[in-house]
């Protein structure tokens, strides 16, 4: 591709292709044809372009989004004016008088209209226009427009690519399409080199409207490492220097709690060793790029290393460490046994040392299923502790169980023999055997959601596991310890949990966890109380 075209022409070709979020087909087809020069490629069901070299070695995915911001038709009024709404983060303040294309059955050119300033009353002419105040005039009657345009059709602002001084260009959609061009250029440089890696490419759809394309594409590719290519803010009058990059100052390398720190530092080192100009962009939370979605796709893709979700770093600390510190700091907990995938045992032990988790007695290899992993840890505990020891079974990705819930679990075992942490269901539960028809609706006041921990005498839970494991089906349909003991006719006793005790399993859960963690930190900072109380004045490690 780059033999006959320079990088600028590739950028401009991509930028000129239509492709608003959810309707990326024109841009996707162009990008796919370019990508196919380097690897087999296809367009997935969400409209993303996906390519993969195949082969062995570390699996690295390169991502840039292919969609652009725009608008969508919402209605056509009686005068033929087209009403619209945003697709992505388009700024209503700059839309008045813009020339646009309405992508109907045939393209219609129009202009965005609003009340002229000399007809506005009072201070109306000084107020920023809202989307609902704007319309598109295509110079046609309502009947004529309705023959070609229908609600849901896309609209884009017209932008003719222009070359500026110093080899720079100006046009719409550069954030998305320049990233695509950068990845294509990278593939050109890697061509015919023995880099020893498997490379996937994702030109993802719907980034501007939430990142669905990246989440689905990241899940499908399941890479070990990923790099998301996007843009940042250029320095301009009135802006803070620390919030912006310098145009022409080199690539910006991101640092964020959601990004792998070592990978960011490695990129800086490589740039310095090779004389590549670079800049640094620090983000205090999520990045606002596809990195936020890719990192939690599937089992969890670190932007730098593929790991299970319990090892994702939130506020600079893996989720499992957030969880373990709750038990480390509880006065009634003597020992902690951790079960993880065998490949992650060395890393887990490093975390134990780094965060001074001195109650951790051992890190145990996990099994084929979650219940197998729990059983392995229970058997290790059995070999080192009395049979009447109390054990609390907890998920590494439940980092917000309260101090009181842990205490109440222990007391319930002492008084009743076991404890199942639950919270009342505030939404109506539907029972369906086929997933399409409602078979029954239980009385809501009788429904509860099971959480963790679930707690038992050591001898009792091992006996229940042994009984289940002796059956031909073993753990089939045994989703938790409560299910296991109930299968043996053992009465289960409920302990009320805390609703903030979420299980981090989806991208949305990651965002919720960040919000809850910020809330907790604010409580502590302003002396409003501590969400997870530490007993006897002890401080978290």
Explained architecture:
Among the domains are: 70-157, Peptidase M42, domain 2 (Elongation Factor Tu (Ef-tu), domain 3, Beta Barrel); 309-537, Spore Coat Polysaccharide Biosynthesis Protein SpsA, Chain A (Alpha-Beta Complex). The chain has 14 helices and 23 strands. The radius of gyration is 28 Å and the shape is globular. The model is unreliable at 301-306 and 525-541 (pLDDT under 50). Helices cover 29% and strands 20% of the residues. Helix 1 (7-15) crosses helix 4, helix 10 packs across helix 12 (458-469) and helix 12 (458-469) packs across helix 13. By secondary structure, the chain is an alpha+beta fold. The strands form seven sheets. It has a six-stranded antiparallel sheet with strand order 5-4-9-6-7-8. It has a five-stranded mixed sheet with strand order 1-2-12-3-13, sandwiched between helices. The protein has a four-stranded mixed sheet with strand order 20-22-21-23.
Which key features would you list for this structure?
alpha+beta, Spore Coat Polysaccharide Biosynthesis Protein SpsA, Chain A, disordered C terminus
> What's the overall average pLDDT, rounded?
85
Strand portion: 15-25%
Give the N-terminus to C-terminus distance in angstroms.
55 Å
Overall shape: globular
Please provide the count of β strands: 23
CATH topology of the domain at 309-537: Spore Coat Polysaccharide Biosynthesis Protein SpsA, Chain A
Radius of gyration: 28 Å
CATH homologous superfamily title of the domain at 309-537: Spore Coat Polysaccharide Biosynthesis Protein SpsA, Chain A
Number of contiguous helices? 14
Q: Please summarize the sheet with the most strands.
A: 6 strands, antiparallel
Output the CATH class name of the domain at 309-537.
Alpha Beta
């Amino acid at each position: 591709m780059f033999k006959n075209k320079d990088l600028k022409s590739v950028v401009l070709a991509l930028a000129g292709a239509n492709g608003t979020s959810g309707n990326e087909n024109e841009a996707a087809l162009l990008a796919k044809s370019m990508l196919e020069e380097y690897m087999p490629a296809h367009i997935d069901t969400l409209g993303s372009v996906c390519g993969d070299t195949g082969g062995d070695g570390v699996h690295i995915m390169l991502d840039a989004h292919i969609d652009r911001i725009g608008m969508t038709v919402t209605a056509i009024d009686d005068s033929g004016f087209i009403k619209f709404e945003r697709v992505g983060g388009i700024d209503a303040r700059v839309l008045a008088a813009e020339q646009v294309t309405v992508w109907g059955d045939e393209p219609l050119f129009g202009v965005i209209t609003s009340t002229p300033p000399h007809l506005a009353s009072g201070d109306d002419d000084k107020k920023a226009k809202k989307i609902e105040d704007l319309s598109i005039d295509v110079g046609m009657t309502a009947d004529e427009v309705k023959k070609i345009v229908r609600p849901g059709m896309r609209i884009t602002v017209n932008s003719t690519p222009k070359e500026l001084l110093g080899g720079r260009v100006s046009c719409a959609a550069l954030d998305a399409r320049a990233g695509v061009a950068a990845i294509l250029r990278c593939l050109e440089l890697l061509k015919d080199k023995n880099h020893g890696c498997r490379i996937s490419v994702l030109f993802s759809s719907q980034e501007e409207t939430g990142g669905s394309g990246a989440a689905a594409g990241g899940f499908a590719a399941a890479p070990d490492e990923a790099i998301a290519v996007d843009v940042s803010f250029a320095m301009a009058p009135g802006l803070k220097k620390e919030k912006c990059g310098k145009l022409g100052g080199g690539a910006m390398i991101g640092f964020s709690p959601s990004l792998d720190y070592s990978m960011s530092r490695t990129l800086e080192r490589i740039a310095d060793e090779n004389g590549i100009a670079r800049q640094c962009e620090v983000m205090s939370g999520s990045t606002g790029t596809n990195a936020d979605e890719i990192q939690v796709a599937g089992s969890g893709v670190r932007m730098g290393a593929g790991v299970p979700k319990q090892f994702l770093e939130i506020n600079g600390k893996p989720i499992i460490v957030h969880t373990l510190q709750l038990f480390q700091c509880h006065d009634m907990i003597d020992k902690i046994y951790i079960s993880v995938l065998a490949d992650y045992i060395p890393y887990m032990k490093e975390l134990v040392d780094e965060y001074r988790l001195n109650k951790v007695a051992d890190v145990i290899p996990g099994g084929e299923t979650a219940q197998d992993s729990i059983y392995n840890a229970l058997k290790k505990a059995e070999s080192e502790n009395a049979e009447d020891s109390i054990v609390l079974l907890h998920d590494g990705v439940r980092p917000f169980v309260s101090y009181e819930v842990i205490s109440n679990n222990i007391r319930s075992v002492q008084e009743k023999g076991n404890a199942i942490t639950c919270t009342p269901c505030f939404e109506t539960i539907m029972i369906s055997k086929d997933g399409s028809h409602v078979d029954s609706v239980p009385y809501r006041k009788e429904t509860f959601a099971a959480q963790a921990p679930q707690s038992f005498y050591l001898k009792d839970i091992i006996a229940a596991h042994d009984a289940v494991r002796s059956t031909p089906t073993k753990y089939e349909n045994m989703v938790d310890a409560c299910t296991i003991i109930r299968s043996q006719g053992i009465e289960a006793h409920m302990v009320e949990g805390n609703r903030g005790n979420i299980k981090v399993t989806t991208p949305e859960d990651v965002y919720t966890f960040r919000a809850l963690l910020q809330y907790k930190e604010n409580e502590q900072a302003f002396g409003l109380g501590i969400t997870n109380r530490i007993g006897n004045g002890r401080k978290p490690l």
